[in-house]
Structure to design on (371 residues):
């Protein structure tokens, strides 16, 4: 029997006010103006049309007749422009001269049409915004396959995602799950799709299409939350690769029993790197370089090539540190590691290939980078 040791507060258990926006899918925003700014701009355009109409009527006020007193002042011009643009007019103020009627035909009527277009366009945009978002969401769900779900977008989640992106993963294939609407807004701003909600709930993970995911990264701040998320995720997706992080090393076996394929103890890993850097700063620098993908040295996993079959570990072109044979991980100096078999996979240290490298640059075939 394992007991989960709790540590601190978790990003997966936020204030109750954030539950009001839970379990929502938020797609990355397109580069458009804010709604309030759009409405304000259109309102300003409508006011400009109104004042232009008032000016036109005022300049030709002698051609208009007011049934009330026979004269048309500035207030009457404003009144006439308002009712003319917004309605068909009441008939109390009418153009009677030829010039006034011509101005109504050539200027006032087009301005009335423009005024209505502005108002109707704003209304239609507000009404169709929800439909447009629903259409985008349905299309996203239909096309999403073999993606990566990241639970928790804190320091650990961001770092893990940066490593995955450095190996070629596209942002369109990533879904972030976090209970904080502010965190998801930040993820949207960076181009990621996000789901606002508690990842321990299956309906939240369903909105992230976790049942179709290829790999799941669990980077919560509390170990008990990580256990619950792992259990739920494994129940929903039996074939996905699940990698989880825990703070306390004694909780790692419970994560593995819950279904995690790999468990990283964040506190212990950082402590070991600190200790190694104390003993040998150069060794610590090399280790940090290995876990920082995309520059310097990279730790990669690749299949055995046909010319390498039957050879020893030290006879390969790359620096092999381990051989993965079935479910066994053999060290490079293990007598059973050689000769290499066609079904083996090699964990090697290679020089990172910059994304801007020209075609033909040497890189391990079908490699899987490790961090």
């Amino acid at each position: 029997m394992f007991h989960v040791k709790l540590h601190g507060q978790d990003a997966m258990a936020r204030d109750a006010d954030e539950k009001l926006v839970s379990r929502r899918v938020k797609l990355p925003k397109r580069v458009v103006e804010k709604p309030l700014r759009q409405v304000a701009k259109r309102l300003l355009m409508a006011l400009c049309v109104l004042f232009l109409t008032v000016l036109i009527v005022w300049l030709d006020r002698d051609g208009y007749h007011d049934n009330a007193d026979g004269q048309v002042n500035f207030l009457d011009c404003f009144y006439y422009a308002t009712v003319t643009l917004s309605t068909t007019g009441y008939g109390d103020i009418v153009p009677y001269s030829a010039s006034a009627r011509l101005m109504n035909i050539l200027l006032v009527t087009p301005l009335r049409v423009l005024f209505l277009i502005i108002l109707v366009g704003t209304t239609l945009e507000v009404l169709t915004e929800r439909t447009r978002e629903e259409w985008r969401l349905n299309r996203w769900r239909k096309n999403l396959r073999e993606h990566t779900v990241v639970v928790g977008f804190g320091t650990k989640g961001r770092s893990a995602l940066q490593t995955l992106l450095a190996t070629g993963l596209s942002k369109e294939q990533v879904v972030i799950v976090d209970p904080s609407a502010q965190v998801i807004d930040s993820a949207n701003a960076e181009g990621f799709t996000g789901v606002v909600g508690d990842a321990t709930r299956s309906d939240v993970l369903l909105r992230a299409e976790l049942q179709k995911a290829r790999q799941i990264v669990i980077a919560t701040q509390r170990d008990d939350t990580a256990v619950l998320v792992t259990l739920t995720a494994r129940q929903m997706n039996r074939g996905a690769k699940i990698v989880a992080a825990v703070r306390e090393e004694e909780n790692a076996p419970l994560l593995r029993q819950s279904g995690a394929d790999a468990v990283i103890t964040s506190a212990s890993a950082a402590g070991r790197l600190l200790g190694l850097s104390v003993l040998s700063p150069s060794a610590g620098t090399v280790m940090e370089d290995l876990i920082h993908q995309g520059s310097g040295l990279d730790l990669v996993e690749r299949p055995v090539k046909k010319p390498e079959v039957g050879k020893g570990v030290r006879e390969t072109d790359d620096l092999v540190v381990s051989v993965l044979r079935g479910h066994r991980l053999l060290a490079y100096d293990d007598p059973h590691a050689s000769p290499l078999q066609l079904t083996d996979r090699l964990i090697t240290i290679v020089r990172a290939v910059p994304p801007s490298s020209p075609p033909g640059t040497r890189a391990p075939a079908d490699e899987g980078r490790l961090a």
Observations:
- The chain is about 40% helix and 15% strand.
- The longest helix spans residues 98-143.
- Confidence is low (pLDDT under 50) at residues 5-23, 363-367.
- The radius of gyration is 33 Å.
